[in-house]
Amino acid sequence: MTQPNILFITTDQHHYNILGAVNRKVRTPNLDRLAAQGVRFERAYCVNPTCSPSRASMITGTYPSVHGCWAIGVKLPEDQPTVGGLLQQQGYETVLVGKAHFQPLRSEPGSESIECQPLLRDLDFWRNFHGPWYGFNHVETARMHANESHAGQHYALWLEEKGLSNWRDYFEPWPPRPNSKYAGPYYMRDALTWDLPEQFHPTHWVGERTIANMERCVNASKPFFAWASFFDPHPPYVLPEPWASMYDPAEMDPGAYTPGEFDGMPPQYARTREQAPDFSDYAEPGGQGLHGFHSHLHNDAELRRSLACYYGMVSLVDTEVGRLLDSLERLGIAENTLVVFTTDHGHFLGQHGLIAKGAFHYEDLLRIPMIARYPGHIPAGAVSQELQSQIDLVPTFLAAAGIETPGFMQGSNQLPVWAGRQPGREWAMVENRHNPTRVHLRTLVTARYKLTVYRGHDYGELFDLQTDPRELHNRWDDPAYERVKTALLLRFAQAEIEREPTRMPRITGA
Hints:
Elements: E1 5-11, H1 29-36, E2 39-45, H2 51-60, H3 64-67, H4 83-88, E3 93-99, H5 123-127, E4 138-142, H6 153-161, E5 192-193, H7 202-219, E6 224-229, E7 238-239, H8 267-271, H9 300-330, E8 337-343, H10 363-366, E9 367-373, E10 382-384, E11 388-389, H11 393-400, H12 415-418, E12 428-435, E13 439-445, E14 449-454, E15 460-464, H13 482-498
Parallel strand pairs: 1-6, 1-8, 2-10, 2-11, 3-4, 3-6, 5-7
Antiparallel strand pairs: 2-9, 8-9, 12-13, 13-14, 14-15
């Protein structure tokens, strides 16, 4: 069998229902085309609702608790085996274009990082660095979202090659301004029109450079694993025209808080409804800030502007997805290429009154869009309700290339599930260890229920997704769900045992 190419397309912080195939308000004709040619999964879940841990799992096939990048700001150890390294051993060219986020924004002895300032803007370094890095033998990467101060690296080199020598003028300066327009680390109170000329947008860079690398591989007659890693629709909510005005805020329908829905929920939820909440009891000596542990109060106009810009970001990414798919056809390799589209984790756009990721394990944050196309192997136009997890991506990529899953990995090959030949997972597990002793939780998702356990606490969460799909009623302390809770806690313990890796087989009695 001819080794298939693998094109892995990801967005960043993409809510599961922001696809034209399920939401007529957003226009994504190319992602809809991909779904029509393959299978779209309605029950796919991340392994961690923050960027670095989930991205590390998508290349290692192990959970954050095993690969070591357990939170944002923690480095993925460079000795971790990855899908790229295994594929290279079988003759693959492995390419990453776009966001990596495997390393922290600060470099310290023992936790050295090249994704840090001021190195991010040292273009001489990036001009001479293209890997190898985490199993990719060719890397073109950048770190920022939209107009953040982290802009630089290979993206800045591309901007200069395109003639935009003053690219720094379009991004927050480094160090950032003391009176920035940001309301928090990533979230702005208003959707702004970005004055960056549209042709220089990082979304176009990811598409253009991924296509160039696919062409290079085809010309060299080498199979490839190419990761097109887009930065959007992660906030800040800024876009150049015409995308900034593509959607009318008046026509948006953001999520909302339902009065009383945080009654009986863990304490961090209710505090997000305060103007200036005190989360000091969650802090640790020397600990870093916790994502989402701040006020989430936004008015309706702010939410509508944010959502309109978010939709525009997704539609802009969709144009480059179209270029990628068209390039596969033009190069004559579409029939022999596995294409997978997904994201690192979900997002809140007003649902439950929330606007940022954190220790809020609702479907909006944990559930992710996912589409797979593989002509001759996956049926076209299928919609699957089978549970899917990011932990299975690497084993599935390896299986497509004819490589057995190594014992140290914790996922399983899903190609038979994607083909509709066998049922999927019985459960998905989501980790969140954002602060080891104060914010450490895990969620078990089954076909009907969702159970969340908090380290060191007797409170938790239990939702019946069949009778309460909006997750408004926590059944953790509901006597009517006592037997369900007991059964789920046992299933949780069994899942923890089942996901233990077996790096080496037992070969003798002693």
